[in-house]
Design goal:
This protein is α+β, with helices and mostly antiparallel strands and about 140 residues long. It has helices at about 5-25, 80-85; strands at about 40-50, 60-65, 70-80, 95-105, 105-115, 120-125. It is globular and about 75 Å long.
Length: about 140
């Protein structure tokens, strides 16, 4: 005959297991969409280049850029595309960016469509804001 303690544990296990499974199965938030209505072109100085750690090829490469007194985050593309295009950015580089300002959670970020550095132009999205790295897969 089971003890009261083991019955309570069994009941808790039966009722709490579906809750734990439901919490794990929650979908990830959708990535932000490029918005042509907020597209802008501006110049700035790179403060930091953020590359994802090795082995995480689906992670996004982004820049932190100084624009006047503001520092903004600019999301470029997946690291695999960044590497395929042989992009090279460093702190202190002056760039011209065309991108869309979008909301991600509580913060605002820029999704880059085109980045110009010196005589090099890196196209990351088409004229409608669709990612061009999808074409290469």
């Amino acid at each position: 005959m089971p003890t009261t303690k083991s019955l309570i544990c069994l009941v808790l296990l039966i009722f709490l297991s579906p809750l734990a499974i439901a919490q794990k199965a929650q979908p990830q938030p959708a990535p932000p969409k490029y918005d042509l209505q907020t597209e802008a072109k501006f110049k700035g100085i790179i403060e930091e280049v953020k590359l994802p750690p090795k082995g995480s090829e689906k992670e996004i490469t982004y820049l932190r850029m100084k624009k006047g007194d503001d520092t903004i985050d600019i999301y470029l593309c997946p690291k695999s595309y960044f590497d395929d295009m042989s992009m090279a950015f460093a702190k202190g580089d002056e760039i011209t960016l065309t991108g869309s300002k979008v909301k991600q959670g509580e913060s605002e970020i820029f999704l880059a469509r085109e980045v110009m550095k010196g005589n090099d132009t890196f196209v990351l999205r088409d004229e409608k804001g669709g990612p061009v790295w999808n074409w290469h897969r």
